[in-house]
Amino acid sequence: TQNSSYPTKNLLTSFFFQQTTMVVLSQPLVENFSHIKTCKHNNTTSDHVHTGNIIPVIDLLDPEANNLIIKACQEFGFFKVVNHGVSIETITKLENESINFFNLSQIEKDKAGPANPFGYGNKRIGSKGDVGWVEYLLFTTNPELNHNKSITIPGNSLLFWGLVKEYISAMRNMGCMVLEMIAEGLKIEPKNVLSRMLSDEKSDSCFRLNHYPPCPELLQALSGRNLIGFGEHTDPQVISVGRCNNTSGLQISLKDGTWISVPPDPYSFFINVGDSLQAMSNGRFMSVRHRVIADSLKARVSMVYFGGPPLSEKIAPLSCLMEEPNEKILYNEFTWSEYKMSAYKTRLGDNRLSLFEKNAQS
């Protein structure tokens, strides 16, 4: 099975309890656990988490896929794709290599860090104090940046980097395909008006491997609360293409603020609308807020490709989308570099786009 290469539950628990000093500063486990966010278990309030059986599933071979994607982007900002053409072998090989890395000793993993922002990160997310029950590897796909060359991957690094390159190529192709289907569904020309930002050789995309370790004793100590693996946020890029192993945890927020759980599917991919696409669509599409809840018994591994434009790309509502002459433009024009720098200065859950709204205070 996919979990066969994980260490035993006891070994994982022992190891990660040794690492909690980063989070709780060697103090009593529950008293100081405010360093990592929690959320309520299912209840009858607006925080109630429903089963995600309403999440759109798009067959990319369906003749109506274009229109179905448009509808999903408008209603959810999120959907699952099947018949995507990515081989299971490509997925499985990279997941196995990722598991091999995350199973290494902390000393060995730390050689690939610290994440600044690229490299190995452990519990600390970004530079503004956000933390989560997660460790990760973050890579850039921008050839003009040399950050990846400084990331040391123990073991068969040639195999690892080869698999990462192959996987990123497959994700870029899928992202471009989806964006071209969106352009066709919106009846805008040229067809590559969106996809060219990802296919550009200077595309500032990135790729992250996440590992959410199980910790049953810690979750039991939380007494009726869930442990946040990765706090709620939107993705600043154009779109994100994600995939996980067969462990639950991903949740998305609906327009009314209700959280729904996304059933895991290791053979399919999930597409997120990002902030940049929301701006370019003049608010027709919504950048989806999402988070990850830690699992009490099983490790979760996810792989996410964040499709971003070149740093100099100007982001603004597309004029060809303005259906009415008097349609209000919601966002000021900004470059991806400006937005990226702004995003780095905010907390994970902040509404980054609000700073670029037409009515925002200067």
List descriptors:
single chain; 362 residues; alpha+beta; Jelly Rolls; eight-stranded mixed sheet; six-stranded mixed sheet; 10 helices; 28% helix; 23% strand; L-ascorbic acid binding; vitamin c
Overall tally of structural domains: 1
Residue-averaged pLDDT? 84
Taking all Cα atoms into account, the compactness measure Rg is 20 Å
Question: Main sheet, how many strands, which sense, barrel?
Answer: 8 strands, mixed
Low-confidence stretches: 1-34, 43-47
- Supply the CATH superfamily name: B-lactam Antibiotic, Isopenicillin N Synthase, Chain
Which CATH class? Mainly Beta
Report the helical percentage. Answer: 25-40%
Looking at the overall shape, the CATH architecture is: Sandwich
User: How many strand units?
Assistant: 16
Q: Outline, from the CA principal axes?
A: globular
CATH topology: Jelly Rolls
By secondary-structure content and strand pairing, the structural class works out as alpha+beta
> What pattern of helices and strands is seen along the backbone?
HHEEEHEHHEEHHEHEEEEEHEEEEH
Q: Walk across the major sheet and give the strand order.
A: 3-4-12-9-14-7-6-5
Give the DSSP E fraction (strand runs of 2 or more residues).
Answer: 15-25%
> Helix count, per DSSP?
10
Pathway: Plant hormone biosynthesis; gibberellin biosynthesis; Hormone biosynthesis
Protein name: gibberellin 2beta-dioxygenase
Enzyme class: oxidoreductase
Family: Belongs to the iron/ascorbate-dependent oxidoreductase family. GA2OX subfamily.
